[in-house]
């Protein structure tokens, strides 16, 4: 289902012909904390967008953050682009990202709001593609998470995960009308967000993107996935960092939708294959091991096809590298879920949180050391 949907949904040609009505202005919120080797080039892509009317609003918590100097250099380099820097944030909840963006959100002057994480790299036509997916009854257009090409096993693992397991879940959920909104690159109507209480209403959640979508859809609006995936381009990649991130996401899903702890293993190749092989042996007398191996082979080939579809061509590594990254990703998936279940505390940058059932977050005070 996800593979067929990806062929129809992703990488459509962006219509560059003049519109019948002028495109709406877009205020782009860019929350920043710290720097990495790719941050400058990532942010620079927001100054070269092929879109008529937009502003870029950078949000930094502290004036001592090294991102301030980097942003100021871009403001000086592109004086013809509407861009401003907001420092200090505004405390409206426990979510540091919401707190960081709140002053810029209040100052935004356009009817469309694009929330874009620091590590996102934009193609020139990405914003135009997202706006063209807006319809009168659509309030959110979000990009499916994916990653830029890079070298090393961590980059292979990252691309395999986001191009297979994440893509299956995201495309399948969108096709079935299930809330799969990930807010790393999300275009929203400001009026729909205001109907739901504004940005500050979601400061009590860490997974603010999920609850934004839930609130907006409950008021009769629709969501759509853009045809161009979101290109994450972190300057520091490691296997451990990605697994910590996936574990944090799993903890959020478990707190928001507890049934995911029971159903999620059934979407993974290894647990599902082992269960199906045992069932086939019990019900039909089939040999479990050959059944399991055929299942894994079919899953592997299907994942290769869906990765090519999401990549819009061949991935930047060999089939052997894909095999190694795929086996690692699939074998680690059950352990990531187990780690999330055994330790519900969430570490995010320098802070720690605990979630109530339903998703509300409480920041934990650091333990004193003597």
Automatic annotation (TrEMBL):
Entry's Gene Ontology BP terms: glucosylceramide biosynthetic process
GO cellular component, one term: Golgi membrane
Keyword Lyase: no
Superkingdom classification of source: Eukaryota
Enzyme class of the recorded protein, top EC level: transferase
UniProt subcellular location: Golgi apparatus membrane
Keywords of the record: Glycosyltransferase, Golgi apparatus, Lipid biosynthesis, Lipid metabolism, Membrane, Transferase, Transmembrane, Transmembrane helix
InterPro entries found in the cross-reference section: Ceramide_glucosylTrfase (IPR025993), Nucleotide-diphossugar_trans (IPR029044)
Pathway: Sphingolipid metabolism; Lipid metabolism; sphingolipid metabolism
Pfam families: Glyco_transf_21
The enzyme's E.C. designation: 2.4.1.80
Catalytic reaction equation(s): N-(9Z-octadecenoyl)-sphing-4-enine + UDP-alpha-D-xylose = beta-D-xylosyl-(1<->1')-N-(9Z-octadecenoyl)-sphing-4-enine + UDP + H(+); UDP-alpha-D-xylose + an N-acylsphing-4-enine = a beta-D-xylosyl-(1<->1')-N-acylsphing-4-enine + UDP + H(+)
Gene Ontology MF term list: ceramide glucosyltransferase activity
Membrane topology, from the record: Multi-pass membrane protein
Similarity remark: Belongs to the glycosyltransferase 2 family.
PANTHER family, sorted: CERAMIDE GLUCOSYLTRANSFERASE
Protein name: ceramide glucosyltransferase
Organism from which the protein derives: Papilio xuthus (Asian swallowtail butterfly)
Source species taxonomy: Eukaryota, Metazoa, Ecdysozoa, Arthropoda, Hexapoda
